[in-house]
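<instruction>
Derive structure tokens from the sequence
<entry> Chain with its tokenised backbone below:
===
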Amino acid sequence: MNLSLSDHRILFYFSCLSLLFISSCRQEKAGITISVDTEKVENAITPWLYGSCIEDVNHEIYGGLYDQKIFGESFEEPVSSPAFDDFSVYEGLWRVTGSKEISVEAYPGAKLVYDPVEVNTGSVEMELKFDAKNGDNAGFITRVTEPGKGADNFYGYEISLTANDRKVVIGKHKNNFEHVRDIGVDCDPTAWNRLKVAMENGKIEVFLNGKSVFTCEDNDVALKKGNIGLRTWNSNVRFRNVFIKTGTIDETLVFKTKPALPVSSQWDAIQTGDAKAVFAHDTKDAFNGQCSQMLELVSGTGTVGVSNSGLNRWGIAVKKGQQFRGRIYLKSQNPGGAVIVALQSADGKKEYARQEIKNVTRQWEKYTFSLMSDTDDANARFAVYTNHPGKLWIDQVTLMNEEKEQFKGLPCRKDIGEMMVAQRLTFLRYGGSMVNVPGYRFKKMIGDPDKRPPYTGTWYQYSTNGFGIEDFLRFCEAAGFTPAFAINIEESPEDMADMIEYLNGLVTSAWGKKRAENGHPAPYNVKYIGIGNEEVLPGGDRAEGYDHYIERFNLLHDAMKGKDPSLSLINAAWWRPESPNMERVFKALDGKAGYWDYHPWTDQLTTGKEVEQELKRMQELFLKWNPDAKMKCAIFEENGNTHNMQRVLGHVTLQNAVRRMGDFVLTSCAANALQPYKQNDNGWDQGQVFFTPSQVWGMPPFYAQQMASEYHLPFMVHSSMVSDTLDITATINEDRNKLVLHVANIHSETIAANLDIRNFGKVKTAKAVCLAGRLDDVNTPEEPERIVPKEMQLDDKGNMVYEFEPYSYTILVFNK
């Protein structure tokens, strides 16, 4: 049955009336009782509980919050891999070095999948050789289904050899990574090694150089059969003699390709008419970074150019009358002809706006332009082209909305910024693994965005700095969020002292003056800064890793606090409670770090209970190590793989746990703040706000956060229940005339409970706000408000029986 939006609203209205009648008019007693005593105030509740974490992972910034419409703005991306016969490329630079040999440059999870054959029973083998011993790993992926761009974006098994510590790594991928086993082996990774995988239904056996090293039985129905492929994880590696044997094929695979035009891979070539053109991805004299794009009209009467269709070619949304402004850097071997910039249809056959740029010189110059679309198109492209003979170079292209159509005049998407404000966030953290690469440095993020150098990023190899820490702080300032950000631990103390002076210093200071010159005279008054992110996580529980972190933290602490003693620095050492290294880190940093950053996994219905146990354990250990401990906890990332109702329940039960912890926890930031629809690169399919080029909507966790923040009260009062069937916290305001209950039902059935509210007085008004659905329920572009809170007034103002819906988050509000 297909229902219209109005039909849904009618059904929703009657369901609310039905629930209202049941919950407020029942006279019989329920099986359980929720007792609340408003005279027993137990602790204060942090106002920064309603946090979110944003980093440029899965294109939250470039393609998302940052209003830059061009993806690949600095042409740093290399030329695309050639088109393969029988193989599909999912990221990475693959090169055929012989008919039966191929190489790939280091990349986080690049895949080459053989399309013609699915394997359930059979074997695959090949030889592989690393360029150096300091890479990570590479090898086979098998039984591959649903492959896509992104490190873990596929279903299948991984069987790889490590370059740095001589191990065979076995893992499973279901849009994530599940580690199965590491097996130590004796080999030289820089020599040719033969890796073989034999499969027979659920049995998998792995061989290295003819020796069986691992056997397992795994009957996961989701990985029953699929294609085979090659994969690298941050290693330069060569593969040869890839052999596959099944019931239908018994041969060594041959790599056949068709050459790609030498155009930076986020751009597409334009040739019209009878134009004969030459393209080159030039690495000799770029305006910014290492690369620019050269094109030349050799002969003919057509045009030659390049086009960009936004993030991974998902289109640039334009509307009739919409004004865009842009910048482009050009130089010409043969000055005099016009260069055209335009908005076009995806195929280039229709032009919606165009502007001529004249008098391009022989030296790099910035040219500004303005384009107003004359039509609506959610899948447009930006084009730059010429019909003038001679070589033309292009670099550093920016296309944005005009200021009045941006978020409060900042280079941020207005609709996304407003949606984040509507979520009622009180705290926003900018950081994550993005900060851990060598190129992530504060001083490279300030000043003219066109001159900020590109760098090799964590989540996107060809990262640029149009949006950085200062841009994040400006956004938080405009949105009203309390900001926190992370820095790379290898930043120099001198640079970090300068950073604090730049951000918080007086305009009369050297770096405060630079801030004013860059357009922000007033200090940002930053307080919370994380020293690193998940430090010592990749290397395991190593004392030397924690020692290095302690050393770096102390150096940066002294430099930064020397400039601003009011800073609150966050310790980002990875929390391993069983490790003796935790006590050493705590004792070295207690009194210097205000908080220890803890990153729980929050997909499960049991999340709240598990996190509360861990928080209590952390607090107990801190007090054991120092009865006068000053360090507390900050949850800067609630991580997971989901954005559905199950994630809602994980999140709200965690929030209840934090309320019960009082002032021990500063904030809890749900990750990720944003997610572009169908552009997820890895298993973290956990955005709260989803978006396309033309649409923005909230997922169920968005509404849970919005509800919790809207009904925040500063004090928790005593609440109890005979059983732990429901997860409950009760809160009250300073005037003691408003009571709010936060109740999570993580069960599949309705639960009726008696409400026994003591010492509150006569209730004048009461209402319920409920977010409920099936565990896998999400909102979609077609139904963006499918799962939203339902609000209803309650006639019964005093004690009552209330029925809590299955899989629900309910807020009960009582006013005197």
In short: Residues 5-25 form the longest helix (21 residues). DSSP finds ten helices and 48 strands in the chain. The longest strand covers residues 32-44. The radius of gyration is 29 Å.
